[in-house]
Design a protein that fits this description.
globular; single chain; 36% strand; alpha+beta; Immunoglobulin-like; twelve-stranded mixed β-sheet; 851 residues
């Protein structure tokens, strides 16, 4: 099979389809590549192609040769952060750059010797230093300034960046693996996830590892919230197994496991394990790295790059699956779920949005190739995918750069919102300059003023209001709600309110009480507990220590045995004291901590009252009489109210001032945004010719021999229609590639190696001495690798060649370990051959043009 030559095509439209992305798209991504890594270049190029990233949105790190693991804060700043901020500013991307994709072979740990941060976290909100921690290494601390204010916000990232970031903040993720093929697979699965509406299970695994199992307390809330939203796929599981297939998600607490299936996850899935070194993705370690989740098919994973201790705040909350259910992208869902991510590394495909609902778009009034001048009207049209997902805004991007907002429909002042709870009507009038979040907060305040009547509490969260029933004796299905809006005295109705369901949903969580018995018992010390069941039956129990050297844990285990053998407590309206390793914490002389659970799920069953007393030497916490309802917020029946703004359709009539643009060929991309915090994007693109002056120019790709693979050169000619030329600039992936001055015709020669394998756009901008500019049409070129064939006996590799050109023949027995040059050959004809010398084991070969 012969090698493909570099294929260059003149295109009049780059994105002809109408794609949509949740809360972000390729327009909002900055791709960072390590110019000294061919893998980084190829993966970055492929990401730009698959996600429609404009060429100016790529940043090339040109000087970094220090490996893929560690760098210092000074190196991080000089090699990445400072060039990134400068690039965003000079290229006019400030109003659109929100996501950051690091394309493999870039260090993932920032360390000054005392503090270690994940590179993605440092890009999110700056390098954070630890505080002293008496119970372990400094990395076990939880510094105040490491809190992530974006977490749990359910807000568009542009409206709620972390408040401790010193510079621009980015939803940064690294796309990497131990080899290029695996990283490419993660990219492709992430793209395949979009709008797939998966129904596969998410398992929140409570394991028998007590140190790494601490997240289980967060499981019930995530399960409940996703069910209220209509997704019943998120479930708890008491298991240490990871031998699953086709999951949409898995959170577990284990340090090492080796039983993942290659098809463990469907596209778009999130998976992670709460352990110390999952972020050691390329460091030697005996704990399972986060890459195991990606290699099993997940689209995103997370781990820490230093010993964090088991603070749950440093790891993803399972609410990330609820955020995905709402339609947020993978990066948005992950960053909203980690309260203190400074030691963490986010890896995967940031834009994957399985549950987003794209709108539809058309632009029949404008066709590709239309000539525009002056102030023509642009008339794209958008239609919402559902009544509860109106469209709030439409922006215009020119050549992939934000140009102007064409229309915006925020909540209209004086619209009136109505909520009927249990038959009681509550109304709220939208104030001026309101946002969805401010309306949610205001409406929740009004609802809470009537909570003594409605017996419902309202909690605002971004554009959502969580409703909790306050009456334990009333089933959730009997708590009714209806919601609606009226135009009021406003000129237009743009504010919308919807309830998730007509009645509240009862919880499937089990009530519990978390108890501490402090100190070591003496002989004769005692523990007494009196349980009052929901039917009024009182069950008193007591244990007395009769053995010298016994611990409080010994006494509690004896008490657990009494509970388990008591018929009154073994019934459905009874309880049990858990002594499993994940629920029972024996601290020896310091005491013991444990959980007492109701036997039946739900809020009513949790109303068993427990009264604990001890002898003087011991101490029971909490004191007094309390129900088994420490997790009260997981037990009350719930519902959601969702706010949105906009209209069911947007018919744009926007006068475009083409004099603000250079003459020539331009892509006009209209982007419509869903009017919720998710802000799913829908795009429609047209390529037009702007002509306000007589200046014109052409760009042509010139032949560079029969083969233009990696290592060869690409040639282009730009010709202006005037001699009055000040400057000609050639642009491609990563921005400006070359400049000539004072020439009407320019020949450009570019190294294919510097661009890397993949699809690349090329266009030129000509500036005349009067300051007029003309942008040529775009030529797209594919830079392929040289394809090898095996021929003859003994076997030889063969490849198409250009006579007198030098080629490096490279080989390896392990592609992950890299290739080494075996020989350099000067071609003598159009087909070259080289004998395979590897015997008795697998060999891998590649050929590249020697510069």
């Amino acid at each position: 099979m012969l090698s493909r030559a570099a294929i260059c095509l003149l295109l009049t439209a780059i994105w002809a389809a109408n794609p949509a992305w949740a809360g972000g798209s390729g327009l909002n991504v900055i791709v960072v590549v390590n110019q000294n890594s061919t893998n980084s270049l190829q993966l970055g190029n492929d990401y730009c192609e698959w996600r429609g990233v404009p060429p100016q949105n790529m940043l090339r790190m040109t000087n970094w040769t220090g490996g893929s693991t560690n760098w210092t804060p000074a190196e991080f700043q000089s090699e990445l952060l400072n060039p990134l901020l400068a690039m965003i500013s000079t290229r006019g991307l400030t109003n659109q750059a929100e996501f950051l994709l690091l394309s493999m072979d870039i260090p993932y740990r920032v360390t000054d010797g005392s503090n270690e941060n994940g590179t993605t976290a440092a890009l999110f909100y700056g390098f954070k230093t630890n505080t002293l921690f008496s119970g372990g290494p400094d990395s076990c601390s939880l510094p105040d300034n490491s809190s992530n204010s974006y977490a749990y916000s359910e807000m568009p990232f542009s409206q709620a960046p972390p408040n401790t970031a010193a510079t621009n903040s980015f939803l940064a993720m690294m796309l990497t693996d131990t080899n290029l093929a695996a990283a490419e697979n993660t990219l492709h699965r992430g793209v395949a996830a979009d709008f797939s509406q998966p129904s596969q299970s998410v398992y929140l695994a409570k394991t028998t590892d007590p140190a790494r199992n601490v997240r289980f307390l967060e499981f019930d809330n995530a399960v409940f919230e996703t069910q209220v939203a209509g997704n019943y796929a998120v479930t708890r599981a008491d298991t240490n197994s990871t031998a699953f297939t086709n999951l949409f998600g898995l959170q577990t607490g284990l340090d090492g496991f080796y039983s993942f299936q290659t098809n463990g996850f469907v596209p778009g899935a999130l998976g992670d394990n709460l352990t110390s070194y999952a972020g050691y993705i390329l460091d030697p370690d005996n704990q399972t790295p986060l890459l195991a989740f990606l290699e099993a098919g997940a689209s995103g994973s997370y781990g820490t790059v230093v010993e964090p201790c088991n603070w749950p705040q440093k790891f993803p909350d399972p609410m990330d699956y609820f955020y995905q259910t709402r339609g947020f992208s993978l990066a948005e869902a992950y960053y909203q779920s980690v309260l203190n991510p400074f030691e963490g590394l986010f890896v995967g495909e940031p834009l994957a949005a399985p549950f987003a609902h794209p709108a539809s778009a058309s632009w029949s009034s404008l066709t590709n190739g239309t000539v525009l001048s002056g102030r023509p009207a642009l008339n794209p049209n958008f239609a919402a995918s559902a009544a509860n997902l109106p469209l709030a805004r439409a922006d215009l991007f020119v050549d992939g750069t934000f140009f102007q907002t064409m229309t915006n429909l925020p909540p209209a002042a004086n619209n009136v919102l109505s909520v009927i709870l249990n038959g009681f009507t509550n109304q709220y009038t939208v104030p001026t300059n309101a946002t969805l979040a401010s309306v949610a907060a205001g409406l929740a305040g009004v609802l809470n003023l009537q909570s003594n009547v409605t017996q419902v509490m309202a909690i605002p969260v971004g554009d959502r209001i969580e409703l909790q029933s306050l009456k334990v004796s009333v089933p959730g299905s009997n708590v009714t709600v209806s919601a609606g809006t009226e135009i009021g005295s406003a000129p237009v109705l743009t504010t919308w309110l919807n309830a998730a369901r007509p009645g509240f949903l009862d919880s499937v969580a089990t009530g519990y009480q978390f108890m501490t018995i402090a100190n070591a018992p003496l002989v004769g010390d005692w523990i007494q507990v009196s349980f009052t069941k929901t039917n009024g039956t009182v069950v008193p129990l007591a244990v007395t220590n009769m053995v010298s050297g016994a611990t409080a844990a010994d006494m509690v285990k004896s008490l657990a045995s009494l509970i388990s053998t008591n018929p009154a407590l073994d019934s459905a309206d009874g309880l049990f004291l858990s002594v499993s390793v994940s629920d029972f914490y024996d601290y020896g002389a310091a005491g013991v901590q444990f959980y007492v659970y109701a036997n039946t799920p739900g809020w009513p069953a949790s109303q068993i009252l427990a009264t604990w007393t001890t002898s003087t030497n011991l101490q029971a916490v909490p004191a007094g009489t309390n129900p088994l309802a420490d997790n009260i917020n997981d037990l009350r029946p719930k519902n959601h109210l969702y706010l949105s703004s906009g209209a069911g359709s947007l018919a744009i009539n926007y006068p475009l001032d083409t004099t603000q643009m250079s003459d020539g060929w331009h892509q006009l991309t209209a982007v419509g945004y869903e009017g919720t915090s998710v802000a799913t994007q829908t795009q429609v693109t047209r390529t037009v010719l702007v002509q306000n002056t007589s200046l014109s120019a052409t760009l042509a790709a010139l032949p560079a021999g029969s083969n233009a693979a990696l290592g060869q050169y690409l040639q282009f000619m730009v010709t202006a229609n005037t001699t009055n030329v000040s400057q000609i600039e050639l642009f491609s992936t990563g921005g400006c590639q070359a400049v000539v001055t004072n020439q009407a015709t320019a020949n450009f020669v570019l190294s294919a190696s510097s661009l890397g394998l993949g699809l690349h756009p090329f266009y030129a901008v000509v500036t005349d001495q009067a300051g007029h500019r003309f942008q040529t049409s775009t030529v797209w070129c594919v830079i392929p690798a040289i394809t090898l064939t095996v021929t003859g006996t003994p076997p030889m590799i063969a490849w198409p060649a250009i006579p007198n050109r030098q080629y490096d023949v490279q080989s390896t027995t392990n592609p992950a370990a890299g290739f080494q040059t075996a020989t350099t050959i000067t071609a003598t004809n159009s087909i070259m051959q080289w004998p395979i010398t590897t015997t008795n084991h697998a060999g891998f070969f590649r050929v590249q043009v020697d510069p």
